Protein 1
Amino acid sequence: MRSGLACFLSLAGVALTNAAFGVEKRHGPAVLAVPMVRDTAPQLSRRSKGVDVSLKNEEVNYVSYVANVTFGTPPQNILAYFDTWGNGCWLYSVDNSDCDLYVDHASCGGYGAYNLTASTTAKRLDDEFAYDDSGAMTTGDFVTDVLKIGGVKVDTMKMGIITEPIITANTLSLGYGNASSISLTQALADAGTINSPAFSLWGQTALFGGINKARYYGPLYTFPIVKRSDLPKALRVNMDGISINKTSAASTTFPLDAVFDTAVSMSYVPKSVAQALNAQIGNTSVPDEHGQVNFSCSAMGENSTIEFKFGKLEFQFYLSQFVSQQSDIATNDGWYSDEETCYFTICENVHLQYEGSIVLGSNFMSTVYAVFDLENDEISLANLNWWEHNPDDIVEITSGKNGVPGAKSGASESKSGTSGAENGTPGATKASAGTHIEKGLGMMAVLVGAVVMLNL
Ligand SMILES: *[C@@H]1O[C@H](CO)[C@@H](O)[C@H](O)[C@H]1NC(C)=O
Ligand SMILES: *[C@@H]1O[C@H](CO)[C@@H](O)[C@H](O)[C@H]1NC(C)=O
Ligand SMILES: *[C@@H]1O[C@H](CO)[C@@H](O)[C@H](O)[C@H]1NC(C)=O
Ligand SMILES: *[C@@H]1O[C@H](CO)[C@@H](O)[C@H](O)[C@H]1NC(C)=O
Ligand SMILES: *[C@@H]1O[C@H](CO)[C@@H](O)[C@H](O)[C@H]1NC(C)=O
Ligand SMILES: *[C@@H]1O[C@H](CO)[C@@H](O)[C@H](O)[C@H]1NC(C)=O
Ligand SMILES: *[C@@H]1O[C@H](CO)[C@@H](O)[C@H](O)[C@H]1NC(C)=O
């Protein structure tokens, strides 16, 4: 529990979760801010995907996208994962045999489970809920009931109620939905809470229907959603490269489709890219069955950086943000010492190829500012401003083309395929990203060092 990285993320979480939203100045913009709750109870570290769970000895303590909501009348408390990958919304039923394991069935291990008979507004629908997540079938009934989230109410939210025990968690998908399932984002748009099915995600906050200009710096670049004929439509863009210390890994394999998935904590890349990255770190082990490698922490090198390129936008982070440490031998000083084993949290994509070539999990997503615009099939990305606690500056996303305020096309000039004219908004800054990156990295070093004293 004491690796510098994990503590750093927890710190960021505290600050963001407690942030007040300065929306009142704007005469009630149609936005909904939902802070994630912190994973404190051991049960809450259960993920909705099997792959991450079984990692032994490993510190998997990244930002979790868990929201505190209620369903039913009177309101039943539920903790549910915000999932950017899937396309359904479902909750455990109290009658699920998994919940029988707990003395308090309705609490169902801390997450909460839904009791249909206890709700006066519940309506069981005729269609059956059947959700196939790459062969893992989850079944139950569809119901509609009152969903309350962050102070707003969706009167008839359609939700699958899982009666068959299966390893998954209460889930609210934020993406596209399909003919049988609606996503939370779409339901909020349909209910008129937000203007357009779009949301921003940064740190541990989801902001439906708006952007927060105070939480990113530099341009907000927009990229088209890319489709792969063999895969379901998802929140997916092209990535143009990954490098360590500015030396690119397997550059000829890019561009590659990259999908955003808050339900996994690590990120996954094709084998050729993983091998090239591992080679740059140096003496790494052979990948384990999850595609992950370990290495001696001293091999990482002080101040090593990792870069992710999307068109005109390049993110740069300390490599240590994508490395975790064996938890039981981690030292308390916030830095890695020589003899310890480190684990690279960018792994070969062994199990998640059905999601895409590259899967960007919460270790990546928690380090960037992202806007997902389902109406226009676009994703906007910017550098996350996590160190300045300046006042929130929340602006609505409007319906129609170019609804994301201040965003401009991030497509590289050299590529013609993904054109998308720049919408040349005056709001976009010309700030020197270089200066900010230096500042960002410098501050992070300070923060990681300061973890000792705060000792979370
Ligand atoms: C969720 O909200 C309920 C009701 O406000 C509260 O009692 C509970 O402590 C919250 N849970 C978490 C994990 O924040
Ligand atoms: C569900 O609610 C009903 C009605 O309030 C109650 O009788 C029943 O015990 C509850 N079931 C569980 C498993 O808690
Ligand atoms: C909706 O998506 C789920 C999960 O991918 C799938 O199991 C279900 O069959 C889909 N429903 C329809 C009507 O396409
Ligand atoms: C590489 O790592 C292995 C196992 O971690 C170790 O036995 C070996 O000595 C290392 N080689 C070098 C050159 O550091
Ligand atoms: C490092 O990875 C290798 C190969 O997967 C594995 O055999 C070894 O146990 C790992 N070392 C640690 C300390 O986890
Ligand atoms: C990256 O560069 C830094 C110096 O800025 C160096 O200390 C580190 O070892 C390098 N890392 C790798 C993996 O090459
Ligand atoms: C790493 O960065 C710090 C702070 O900028 C600097 O003092 C140190 O010399 C750097 N180390 C290496 C190996 O470049």
Note: Helices lie at 4-17, 50-53, 184-190, 271-281, 362-365, 433-454.
Protein 2
Amino acid sequence: MSSTKSTYEDLLTFVKYEMETSANYQPLIIRALLKSGGKMTALDLSKELMLGNDLEVGKYRSILMRYPKKTLMKRGIIQYDRKSKVFELLARSGEERMIEQIVECCDRELAKWRLAVQRTESSSLRYDLIDEAGGRCQACGALAHNSPLHIDHIVPKDLAKRGRVATADGQRIDVESRENLQVLCETCNCGKRASSRTDFRPSEERLLESLIATLGHAADLGYDVNSMTATAQGRFRSRDHLTAADGHSRVRTRAPTKKRTSGRESR
Ligand SMILES: [Zn+2]
């Protein structure tokens, strides 16, 4: 812990000689605080960081100059003066109280947009989770094409207090955070009681159960399970993956009686 920099001289020394920064955050924060009399809310400081990112601002400038400018000019809402680079709203007269109503309408549109973005983000989280789970139910190993996959809250939402829940190891986390989500097939998810906190994510025991179930399923379908097991072990060995199998007896290999290619390669 360093000493408090209580004078501008101390602060200058810090900025000049001591400030180590790989990003531009620290100088932006200090500059903004100085300019606003020493105090700012977290929201205002976050905006400052965003505005300090020249590349990001440049990106928005090019967006502004393309679509909204063109559209709003065509609709007779704004004009743009190239020389002074100033945008101007063409509506200038009328009852003042209308301004408030217009702003409210814009706010409503923005809220709709935010909701749509959040939905897209949550659908990409869904995709990530299912991808990480190998496209399988984390309880029974069912593939998505056998049973629709759901995203389940390990500690149910109903048990959340102010949006937070306690995990098995006592940590308090956001109920919607990744750590509290698991992929379950429809059957497993419906079987899970509303109050259940079961974490079905893979453990050695569960993976073994799933392996046995998959092999049983393959045998039922008439595949050569021995040959499949040998192929799987060979692939793992080539990835230098199967150290645990050392010393175990090798599975007897023989020519496959039935050769089929599966659609999904193990990754
Ligand atoms: Zn399942």
Note: Residues 54-93 form one domain.
